[in-house]
Design a protein that fits this description.
The chain has a 5-stranded mixed β-sheet. A 4-stranded antiparallel β-sheet has the order 9-12-10-11, with helices on one face. A 3-stranded mixed β-sheet has the order 3-2-4. It is built from 13 helices and 12 strands. The protein is globular and about 65 Å long. Helices cover 37% and strands 22% of the residues. The protein starts with 7 loop residues before the first strand and ends in a 16-residue tail after the last strand. It has 3 domains: 1-168, Alpha-Beta Plaits, CATH 3.30.70; 172-229, DNA polymerase, domain 1 (Orthogonal Bundle); 246-344, DNA polymerase, Y-family, little finger domain (Dna Ligase, domain 1). The protein is an alpha+beta fold. Strand 7 (142-147), helix 6 and strand 8 form a beta-alpha-beta unit. One of its GO terms (cellular component) is cytosol. Its main location: cytoplasm. Keywords: Cytoplasm, DNA damage, DNA repair, DNA replication, DNA-binding, DNA-directed DNA polymerase, Magnesium, Metal-binding, Mutator protein, Nucleotidyltransferase, Transferase. Its EC number is 2.7.7.7.
Length: 360
């Protein structure tokens, strides 16, 4: 039985973008730093240093709200090329230990070290060494969670942040999950947490008392997920090669826009960039999605699908402009626009299939 137990590590960099900025610019160290957005309240927070998080600021928050919460915050522009470079350095460290690395983003990944390149039986020691090497190589800190499945490893990595580590062994899992506040369960957001508390579910122990059928009745099919995770059940594999399911581009404008001709031209430029990426990768898709964020931060998407694959810029642009007619763009000011092409030409094995694109 013990041979079948997996050893999974979840590595999560601490306030990654903001930490890189504080590393590279000494004047930001110890200061409340926000990456993304602007002091004028435009845009969205991409990352927040721990100093600014104390004021309630967090990623994905509108910059206007962040300014209200912490007027003294320092706003810096993202340097994604630098973040990607650092992320590659970190990923190279992962591959010293295992080929089973599943990146979730630039700053976090799962590693399956059940079998590893250094033949070390202790996932805990491997996680410690990875964190040490990251610090040595990048001068940044990482937190780690060690467990026997992905869900528990993800939850564990958040327990002792920043610059910490937690280990959940099979014999400790039940007690850990029963004592865990419901809001700390990965996959339970603030809205679900509020609903659960209204039902008297405050901890894992409370959640565990519910039957699966009752959870499904209250929360839909995700009720099955809640039923499993509170029992520490997660059979997902660490996937070394994640399949890209869509390609999209978007932009938050420095000033709100409302001129329809300008918006049409912008969508054409965006569509052409997506087309170039698609053709470079020999990809195409059937579903076009338009994303719109108005000046009051209301965000919506509109989609349409074709029976055939497309990857031409003009086809993507015309579809996006058609979807635009289903919105209030032109009557309301716009803060962000984006286009995504999905439903890609993937086989069941995740490989790109030979394209068959009609020529009109």
């Amino acid at each position: 039985m013990s041979e079948s137990i997996k050893k999974i590590i979840h590595i999560d960099m601490d306030a990654f973008y903001a930490s890189v900025e504080q590393r590279d610019f000494p004047e930001y160290r110890g200061k409340p730093v926000i990456v993304g957005g602007s002091p004028e309240g435009r845009g969205v927070v991409a990352a927040a240093s721990y100093e600014v998080r104390k004021f309630g600021v967090h990623s994905a928050m509108p910059a206007a709200r962040a300014v209200r919460l912490c007027p003294q915050a320092i706003f810096v522009k993202p340097r994604f090329e630098v973040y990607r470079e650092v992320s590659e350095q970190i990923r190279d460290i992962f591959f010293q230990f295992t080929d089973l690395v599943e990146p979730l983003s630039l700053d976090e990944a799962y590693l399956d070290v059940t079998e590893n390149h250094i033949n070390l039986p202790s996932a805990t020691l491997i996680a410690k060494e990875i964190r040490r090497l990251i610090k040595e190589k990048t001068r940044l800190t990482a937190s780690a969670g060690v467990a026997f499945n992905k869900f528990l490893a993800k939850v564990a990595s958040d327990i002792n942040k920043p610059n910490g580590m937690a280990v959940i062994t099979p014999d400790k899992a039940d007690a850990f999950l029963e004592s865990l506040p419901i809001g700390k369960f990965h996959g339970i957001g603030s809205a679900t947490e509020k609903k659960m508390k209204s039902l008297g579910i405050y901890t894992g122990k409370d959640l565990k008392e519910w039957d699966e059928i009752d959870l499904v009745e209250r929360f839909g099919k995700t009720g099955r997920y809640y039923y499993r995770i509170v029992r520490g059940e997660d059979n997902r594999e660490v996937k070394a090669h994640r399949i890209r399911k869509s390609i999209g581009k978007e932009r938050t404008f420095s000033e709100d826009v409302e001129e329809l001709d300008w918006i049409h031209n912008f969508l054409e430029e965006l569509a052409e960039k997506i087309s170039m990426s698609m053709k470079k990768k020999k990809m195409a898709g059937k579903t076009v999605t338009l994303k719109v964020r108005y000046d009051d931060f209301e965000t919506l998407t509109r989609s349409t699908s074709f029976s055939h694959y497309i990857n031409k810029g003009e086809d993507i642009a015309e579809t996006a402009k058609s979807l635009l007619q289903q919105t209030e763009v032109g009557k309301r000011k716009v803060r962000l626009l984006g286009i995504t092409l999905s439903n890609l030409n993937l086989s069941e094995e995740g490989r790109f299939e030979q394209l068959s694109i009609p020529f009109d």
